[in-house]
Every structure is written in C-alpha cells, then in structure tokens.
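hey m, so remember when u said the tokens were messed up on ur end? i reran from scratch. heres the input so u can diff it against urs
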Amino acid sequence: MPKYKILIDSIYINNSGGKVLLDYLINSIIENGSIGEFYFLLDPRGEYDYLDKIEYEIGRSSEKFREEFYHENKQRFRKVLCFGNVPPSVKLNRPVYTYFHNALLANSVKGYPMKTKLLKYIKRLYIKRKSNNTDSFLVQSQLMKNLVNRHIKPNKKVALIPFFNLEKKSKQIIKNNIEFVYISDGNPHKNHKLLLDVWGDLAKQNIKPKLHLTVTDAYPKVVNQIQSMKNSGVNLENHGYTNVDKLFDRSSFLIYPSLIESFGLGLVEAVNAGLKVIAADLPYVREVVEPSLVFNPLDKQSIIDAVKESLSNHTLKDSQIIIENKINELIDTLIND
C-alpha cells in the first residue's frame, strides 16, 4: 500500500442511503481520474462492483478493528474521510473529516423501541466523545449542521457539502393514471402508520387513488398492515425492494410524510422524474425541493386535505429542485484542501 494516500473509511456503510452515496462518491472519483490517490476501508457486509478499480481493504465492522487499523496505519495517509458518521477512535496527526449523514444519531424520534433508542443514544455519546478526533464534520443539509452543533459538538466546524446522483430524464413520462408513491422503508420515523390511516379514511369516503409503497420484509408489522388493508379494499400496492424508476414512471405524485431526514434524496429523485411532491411541512423538505403542496405530518386531516387537493387541483404547481450537487467540491476538498 503506497504511503500518503487519502483514506476513505466506510467501515459502517453497507446498505440504504449511505451506500448509495458511497458508491456515487467512489464512481465519481474513478470518473475524474483521481482514484490512484485514494485507499478505501470497506464494510464486509456491502456489495461492490468497482473493486478491480480501487485499492482497498475489507475490515470488520467494529470500533476495535478501527482502533487497531488507525494505530497501525496512522502515518500512512495524508488525509482521512470517515464516511460512516463516527470519527476515528484515535487522534491522527492528519486532516480528518467525518461525513455525518444519520439524523437519528443526533436527534430522538418517537416510535422506536426502548432498546433501539438506548443504542442510538450510546452511539451518540461515543461520537461526541470522539468528536475531537475530527477537524470538521461534513453534512448534507443545514438541518444536519444544526443537529451536529446542538447535539454532537457545539461550535465544531461543520461544512455543508451536499451531493447526490441524478440521471437526467431524456423524456417526460406521460402518466395516464393519477397514482401516488412513497419510496421508503418501514422505520417508525417514516410515518407509515399515519399514512395508511389516511388511505383507510379516504377509502371510506370512496376516494381510492392508488398508493405504491416499498416496505421490505424487514418490517413485518407494516407489511402485514398494508396487506390487510389491501384485502379489505384499500387501493394499496407494496413492492418491497424494487426498481424505483418504474414506480416513478407510473405515478403522478410523491407523498412524503417522514418526520425527519438527513437529506431526503427521494424528494430530489421524484422531482427529477417529473412527479409533484406532496410532503411534510418540515425544514428537511424545503432545503432540497420546493414542493407542490405541504401538510402537517402529525395531523391526519391535514394529510387527507392535501391528497384531496392534489386530486382536484388540475393547475397544481410543479415541484422544483433547489439543492445543488457539490460532489466536485467534496472531491476537491479531499484532494487539495
């Protein structure tokens, strides 16, 4: 392993939004021709299709492994990016950045089991304890910046460098049916329970727009509730893990009742695909898109009213992307800063 490369430590990144961001970052580095300057520490649980193009090591997903790795290699890198929210376990005599992109590690949200809340709280305390081992945190949104300064480290340097991968649509999809989609897993903060209650109440009023969902079998209670309601005549379809583009192509609206998001990539992707966004009236939404309609995500009637408005208002304004992709700024920061 050559000396003085830039280390990207992604030992805790193996699925979901963090993995999407990691893949995009690595592929962007490959495309701009600077991959030779980097070395990657990868999570053994992840799947990677670029291993033949990078220098890497598959580690173990534990702080014990990370501590041993940094003790043995701390003089071998000129810069470090910790991509999995957690700063290095040891102090390094090198510039260190920590990409923090999990809002649930910096903010408590109702609906989670006590054990899960406790584990997240312990991890937050650990990140706070190790925050002196990073020179700055990098985040996707102003919301995340505020959470870091409020709950992780007051007055810590935090740089706002959002990045995301969008493939521009070459043509506009003609949507023949008025259908809704919610791209999300079944975590409590995603607010499926209330959204399903909304669709149940609409069905009782004989208002039955199609709602596409993407809840996997990892959330059996939500999956079972969806199936039970579908069996009773509510117009729901759960696809589990699926091709999101196909759902966007057949839908007119993205409905997004989530209570908190580190970034809200699904909002950006939906607008890029030509959907109108009906979303929670919360800061994380307005940081990335200008929605067509908003609602109170804690108020069932507010969501019902927004759905009815979207169905009846044929001149509803289009949604707009307002966030800027700064992937080049991130790579330049790592290479040149």
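this time it looks ok to me. The first helix runs from residue 16 to 31. if urs says something different then somethings off w ur setup not the seq
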